[in-house]
Predict the 3D structure of the following.
Amino acid sequence: MSTQDFTIPNHYVLAALRGPKENGFDVALLLKQAGISPDVLTEPMAPVTAAQYSMLIKHIWLTMEDEYMGFSHEPSILGTFSMMCHAVIHCPTLEKAITRAFRFYGLFTNLPRLELVVLGEEAQIVLHDEQLNDPDHFLVESLLVIWHRYSSWLIGRRIHLLKTQLRYPAPEHQSEYRRLFHCDIEFDAKQTGFIFPVKFLQEKVVQTETTLRQFLIHSPADLLARPDEGNSLVAQIRKIIGSDLSQELPNFEDIADALHMSVQTLRRRLKDEGLTYQELKDQMRRDTAVYYLERGDLSIQEVAEKLGFSESSTFHRAFKKWTGITPGAYREGDENLER
């Protein structure tokens, strides 16, 4: 299973659809174009793959002709991000690239303003989001994710964040923010942005016009959809478990031994990242199940076996617990979309 086949939490899909919905666009058609079952509108746990989510974002942009998806007072017309990328690709360092990029976006007076601030050993990208029409904070979070991952792409290495600051209270899904940014999250902050070591600003831009052309085929939608676990504890555990879930998975003690830490330390650190080992195993099985059900070349019994379930009935119950619907209903929804 590739990284494209991770699932995206339902609330991000609903938040993305708010802009087109409030601007009178056909949400059902957008879901169909992305290959997403309409169950996502009514089932809080209905799964959406990263590839489907990326396709949804692209279709929203194309339909609305707005890369900011209706959440800004002025549309960001199609091609704006691409032109910005071309404008900065020959900059020598990340600092020069970010500075030029923000000057570029500053030409559009009604778009949210971005600012690079350097304070001693720390650098900060600040997003001035006061004028946005973004009740779910979808555009705010999307822009922060895009600028972090795009900046990392420019220099060919992941930028380690020190803190992410958000001007609004912690939502119910606050545990998922660590999966987005892999750093401390400060809610109800005085400003919105993220902080990282200043040393990254002097890193050379290693990308070229050739690599940029390939990058722009799927980005920035792909930047929002693909998982970015960095070197987090969860990422390390995923590597230890591997992609073959048909065999008995390592127990908690085995994982702790492999990571050279005590069971107590592992449990505490997982809690810090917002989940338990059982929840992580369930996530991996859910994502893999969705992947095989999407492919359509295996029976449900065979999918169950791929996940280590000896009985398909046990798999049915588990999948419904994870997603709110049965494997058969999920597959039937995909088939209906294709008709």
Notes: DSSP finds 16 helices and seven strands in the chain.
